[in-house]
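During the no-cost extension, the postdoctoral fellow (Dr. R.K.) reprocessed legacy sequence entries with the updated structure-token encoder. One reprocessed record is reproduced below for audit purposes.
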Amino acid sequence: MMLKQERRQTLRGKFLRVTIPLIFLSVIGVFSVIELIAHRNAVSRLEQTLDGMIRTQTAALVNPLWNLDRDQIRLSLEAIVTNREILSARVLGEDGNPMSEAGAVPEGASPGDLISMRRDIVFDTGAGSKVIGALEFVATRQFVWEQTRNRLLIAAVIALVAVSIEVAAALYALRTIIGRPLARLLVSINRARGSEEREPVAWDSTDELGQVITAYNEMQAKQQEYEGELHTARDTLEDRVHERTAELAAKSTQLEHLAKQLSKYLSPQVYETIFQGRQEVKIAATRKKLTVFFSDIADFVETADRLESEELTQLLNHYLTEMSRIALDHGATIDKYVGDAILIFFGDPETRGVREDARACVRMAIAMRERMRELEGVWRAAGIAHPLRCRMGIHTDFCTVGNFGSEDRLDYTIIGRGVNIASRLESLATPGEILISYETYAHVTDEIACEEKGEVKVKGLAYPVATYQVLGPRDAASLALASEKTDWAALIAKDPEAMTEAERREAIARLSGALEHLSRTAGKADAAE
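Re-encoded structure tokens follow.
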């Protein structure tokens, strides 16, 4: 037991001899830190000296500057730059322009070595202090750095000599005491790494390194046992992992496909809020001010009677696809399709403010109307003699929006007075017309040109609703009105017998709508009288 203790103590001594260079380097490091601190203090003292000098010189320059004694100012500046730390000095006049200067900053001077100082020159006029100029000079830390570098260079040379000696001794000790057993240990590790047959490391010692080698030999023996067990377990685990990975991939693909299918039944905004966790799927509703849009196809029953079910389905799907694309481009929330009717609203689950929501809704309606005019030619070319024409109604009001239904099935929709008014406006509009309420008109009138259409009664409301026809954007309003007048003039002047059957039907529909509007206006005027 005493022999083992002596060997361990000997190993500690050897280890201490190896660590002597580290201790020596630490001392040199501390010395270097002290030198750097001394350098910092020297720089600080230099800055304090310069501050005191500039204070003294500004006081001395008060009278010469006040009296504009340029010779005295120049002599003072030349005296200042005689100090080797000060490279240049100059006096600025009351207007900030240089009056006199002495010395110059060398072109190769490092900006980090320069110290720029400035102090105002103040003259006491008796009625108060007045700034009559300023003193500026540029000093350098170069001389302080040179002193510090010289001391550090001497310390580095001394440390280098000492370190070289100690490192040589340490290398010899490491090679003799630790290098040989570590080399044998490394050979054994490389054999194990190369999957070769493992052999125990032969080293007869009871010191710390000997204990490490003994523990390594024991670990090698146990590892051989564990590797056999792990090899069997790994094969089993890999098989199970492959099976589970294939199952998860199939489930993931199935869920992605299901999510894509479900997204087609929801508005994109609602779909995203649900799948991103921003909205819970539960019965809940809130009151919000929304802009509600209603549209349907005029004379849809007659159109349905003229077409086969397959043609009608294709035509209706084409119409709904085009209108939905425009709605989504404008940020709308599509509530539902009811046959040929579309219910859309702006303001939930995302809103840009009531005014911007109303404007976006009206811009969407105008875009739909323009697209319907383009589609008329497409449908006529496809053999449809009576293309679809839609009516649109828009109203801005408070509505209840949220999830309605039961715990088993929910519908994200809106209810309230605003929905009823928008539906009523749509039913009053003529084919191709966009009819809006005053509540919407007030938000869009500065951007959209509208024409007042009078007041209408809405079932369930005790007051009439003012209505406005949307003409188009303000910059195109005059063109729209002129175009409409030209169309009416051409329609009235045209010979009915020269018209095609489709043109006659269109003329009858437009004139009937105009006659109905005039009748309503005349009736209101008679009632007022």
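The first helix runs from residue 2 to 60. The two ends are 129 Å apart (CA to CA). The remaining legacy entries will be reprocessed before the final report is submitted.
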